[in-house]
Write a structure and sequence with these properties.
Radius of gyration: 29 Å
Distance between the termini: 52 Å
Number of strands: 18
Largest sheet: 5 strands, parallel
Oligomer: single chain
Strand content: 5-15%
CATH topology of the largest domain: Rossmann fold
Strand order of the largest sheet: 2-1-3-6-7
Shape: globular
Structural class: alpha/beta
CATH architecture of the largest domain: 3-Layer(aba) Sandwich
CATH superfamily of the largest domain: P-loop containing nucleotide triphosphate hydrolases
CATH class of the largest domain: Alpha Beta
Number of domains: 3
């Protein structure tokens, strides 16, 4: 794209340039030159003022002097790279070939210009910087859309209930109305929320997910609405809340049934007014956000018990979306299992399939943990089994294993144990118990299986003196899968 094309586009949507320089005359000169070329300019005398302007109104390019009294221009480059990496930074210096300018470019600045400013040079560099900033934002947006599209594809709908849900999501996604997603733990509520966002007119905007249970009452207002610098102890800079960060897109409030009374009251106020007031601010800010909430609780019962506000429920439940548990849509089970099997067998580096008996076991199981449990079971079977065809015992499901001991025995090391070291466990086995028996292990099925997996990995590592590559080979998985499993198990 030519400079003329970029400048013509600036007339339609003015690119914004922040000019950071304590020499006000030079800053005004640069601003006047760039305004004549069609740019929207703001001058800032300090780095703090520039970061405040960037957070408040955004920018395409920052033009900054490298050496201001008490300030290192490199500090601004680092801050912008951290907070807004799609904003190009151009540095100004008396001689662009100076070591400081070259170091700034190596540190991440887009380019440098000489001072005092030359109109042609300044316009040329800023035009190229604006174009690069625009391309980076476009690339980021496309990456986000691809990620959402890939995530959306994970919602597999073979059953009538699932197909009906997808049809409803497609129909209501373009609306601005709030939606309330209800379903058991592990059914994929966030995935449904992302589908609503992806198929909406807000798909190019942000998708911000918030876990309501994570907010203590004392920080709700700051987290939701943001705060101004100095508004309370520890508020060392302005901070946008989740409503502002989601403006133009979708705000997903997960586990809304866990929200406390303070959270509920403040959320209701935003839904009614469409405005947020930062802590310490004097004026409210308009926000354009679609709210999608989710819960695994029965909110009508919570209302009867006094734990949830009825007025907030009716505000959220404009579009109700209910996800049926996996046990009620068994036609989806094998399709979902095969999807996870393909993904995790690719991580393991070998093709793996399901035997007919294994498929029957998966379809017949009740799946109290829903899709999340199904993925965990498939991943564990791929990691722990060296077979290319998974049989029922690879899943170690309570309803089909002949006791937990047998399930864990199937994952025991193949190497012969040392007699002295294993004498006690053998004696226990003769008495009808083992280290994997319920007398030693406790907790849920997932917790017990994680304990068994931990012991199996530790045993494999001990057998090869801690060599993870050899341990992965002994376990029949690739090194990446072993590392991921060790991280999840805290090894």
């Amino acid at each position: 794209m030519s400079e003329a094309d970029v400048q013509e586009r600036n007339i339609e949507r003015k690119a914004r340039v922040l000019i950071v320089d304590d020499e006000l005359n030079l800053a005004r000169m640069a601003a006047n030159l760039l305004r004549q070329a069609g740019y929207d300019c703001e001058t800032c005398p300090t780095v703090d003022a520039a970061m405040h302007a960037l957070e408040q109104h955004g920018a395409d390019v920052i033009l900054t002097d490298l050496k201001m009294p008490g300030v290192d221009g490199m500090e601004l480059i680092r801050k912008v790279q951290t907070k807004r990496p799609d904003v190009a930074v151009v540095v100004s210096a008396p001689t662009p070939s100076a070591d400081s300018a070259a170091a700034a470019v190596r540190a991440g600045a887009f380019d440098s210009v000489s001072k005092p400013f030359n109109a042609d040079e300044l316009n040329s560099v800023i035009t190229r910087a604006v174009e690069m900033s625009s391309l980076q934002r476009e690339n980021r947006r496309l990456r986000e859309q691809l990620e959402v599209a890939a995530t959306t594809a994970e919602f597999i709908a073979e059953s009538a209930q699932a197909r009906a849900l997808v049809a409803t999501i497609r129909r209501v996604a373009p609306a601005h109305a709030t939606a309330l997603i209800q379903g058991e733990t592990g059914t994929g509520k966030e995935l449904v929320a992302r589908m609503l966002h992806f198929w909406s007119r807000r798909a190019e905007g942000p998708f911000v997910a918030v876990n309501c249970k994570a907010f203590a009452d004392g920080v709700v207002e700051s987290e939701l609405f943001g705060h101004e610098k100095g508004s309370f102890t520890g508020a060392i800079r302005d901070r946008a809340g989740c409503f502002e960060r989601a403006s133009g897109g979708t705000l997903f409030l997960d586990e809304i049934g866990e929200a406390g009374p303070d959270f509920q009251a403040k959320l209701l106020r935003v839904l009614e007014d469409g405005e947020v007031m930062r802590v310490g601010a004097s004026k409210p800010r308009k926000v354009d956000v679609r709210i999608v909430a989710a819960t695994n609780r029965n909110l009508r019962k919570e209302i009867d018990a006094g734990g949830f506000r009825a007025d907030l429920f009716f505000r959220l439940n404009v579009i109700p979306l209910i996800i049926a548990p996996l046990r009620q849509r068994r036609e989806d089970i094998l399709a979902i299992a095969r999807y996870f099997l393909i993904r995790h067998s690719a991580d393991a580096g070998r093709p793996i399939t399901l035997s007919p008996e294994a498929e029957n076991v998966l379809v017949g199981y009740s799946w109290p943990g829903n899709v999340r449990e199904l993925e965990n079971v498939i991943e564990r079977a791929v990691v722990m089994s060296g077979a290319e065809v998974l049989e029922p015992e690879a899943f170690a499901l309570e309803e089909y294993a002949a006791g937990m001991g047998e399930a864990f025995d199937a994952m025991a090391p193949d190497t012969e144990p040392d007699d002295s070291a294993e004498s006690a466990p053998r004696a226990e086995a003769e008495n009808g118990s083992s280290p994997g028996d319920s007398g030693t292990l406790s907790g849920t099925l997932q917790e017990c299986l994680d304990q068994a997996a931990t012991e199996r990995i530790r045993s494999a590592l001990a057998a090869v003196n801690g060599n993870r590559l050899e341990a992965a080979a002994a376990l029949g998985v690739d090194r990446t899968t072993l590392y991921r499993l060790m991280k999840r198990l805290g090894l």
